[in-house]
Structure formats: C-alpha cells, structure tokens
Amino acid sequence: MGQAASDGPVVVGVQAGQVRDVVTVAAQIAERFSVPLVCVTVDPALLSAGNRADGSEIIEPIDPDSADARPTDLPDADRAVIDQIAAVHSAEVTVLTKVGDPGRALAAVAEEHDALMIVVGTQTGRRRITEFFNGLVAARLAHQQHRPVLVVPVDPVGFDDPLPWDAS
Questions:
Q1: What is the pLDDT at residue 124?
Q2: Which residues form the UspA domain (predicted)?
Q3: pLDDT at residue 129, rounded to an integer
Q4: Domain boundaries, given as residue ranges, for the chain
Q5: Per-residue model confidence (pLDDT) at position 45
Q6: Which fold has domain 8-49+57-70+89-101+113-130+149-156?
Q7: Are 129 and 34 in contact (CB under 8 A)?
Q8: Is the Cα torsion angle 155, 157, 163, 168 positive or negative in sign?
Q9: 3-class DSSP state for residue 98?
Q10: How far is CA 7 from CA 10, 32, 37, 126, in A?
Q11: Do 23 and 50 contact (CB within 8 A), yes or no?
Q12: pLDDT of residue 167
C-alpha cells in the first residue's frame, strides 16, 4: 500500500457505551498507517462560547436552567476499553472531550490534527431517532469537510428489517 495522504492521526468519534467496535476499526487503521489515534467524545448539551484571554474555553449549557457547564467525559470503563484496544494495535491514543455539535467538533479536531480520516459509528437504540432529526453525523461530515469518513456499523439490522427511521 502507498503512502498515506497525511501522517496525521485517525480521529474517531466515540460515545459512552459504544466504543469497542468503532475504536477497534479505527485502531486497525491507525496501526496499518503507523499513525496515532485521537478519540473524541462530544457533549452536545454544552456549547463553546469562545475563549478567555488565557486561552481556556468558555463553555455554556444549552439549557439556560442548567448550572452545569462541565462536559461529560467518557466513563472509566470505556476509557479502559480504548486503552486496551490501542495497546493491542500498538497505537498511541489521546482521548479528548469536546462540546457542541458532534459533526463540527469532530471536523475541528480532524483539521487541527491534520487527520488521515474520521471514523464514526452508527447510532443505536433511542439515539437513532435523535440522529435522524439532528442529521446523521457521518453524512454531515461527508458533505461539510474534506477528509475521508468511515462509518462503522454498530447495531446493524438485516435487509428485511425496517430501517431505524422507518420503525414505528
């Protein structure tokens, strides 16, 4: 296989409880191209309101009645899974927590790190409806930024089963 277009990392979008399949695929790619892995979790309940003079980010809740402006990090169990998978694939890994729109956050991290590609998983369960109404993260990434996007099926349905947005 030829040289990668970038020596930048594989950026992977991760969600609590849904890391194993997506991170495994991303780590295999990172190993294949000898690049690091940057796992990004995004808290969509918070927004970035810019930066302070010292460079730190100003984070505000979307809900004005919420006083909590701390982003939700991945649970320790998910972080342990990421570290285990990265070790198996000899991939250097960084885990970042971002806020706001997941597609924009992933695209920004990918741009900042000159990523080789972005890897995301499909949504599962109740998240599918939210994904449908908010716009598929993968579809938005494929149309609104220039890096390759790989979508990993997390909970696929059969060809004879209704698609998540067709189920009632």
A1: 62
A2: 10-153
A3: 45
A4: 8-49+57-70+89-101+113-130+149-156
A5: 86
A6: Rossmann fold (3.40.50)
A7: no
A8: negative
A9: strand
A10: 9, 12, 11, 37
A11: no
A12: 58
pLDDT of 62: 80
The DSSP bridge partners found for residue 39 are: 12, 95
Please report, for residues 40, 43, 144, the alpha-carbon distance to residue 16 in angstroms, rounded to integers and kept in the order given.
11, 11, 25
- Assign 99 to helix, strand or coil: strand
Place of tokens 């994904």: 131
Q: What does the block give as tokens for 102?
A: 């997941």
Q: Are the CB atoms for 35 and 99 separated by under 8 Å?
A: no
CA distance 75 to 104: 23
Strand partners, 121: 152
Sign of the CA dihedral 90, 30, 34, 113? negative
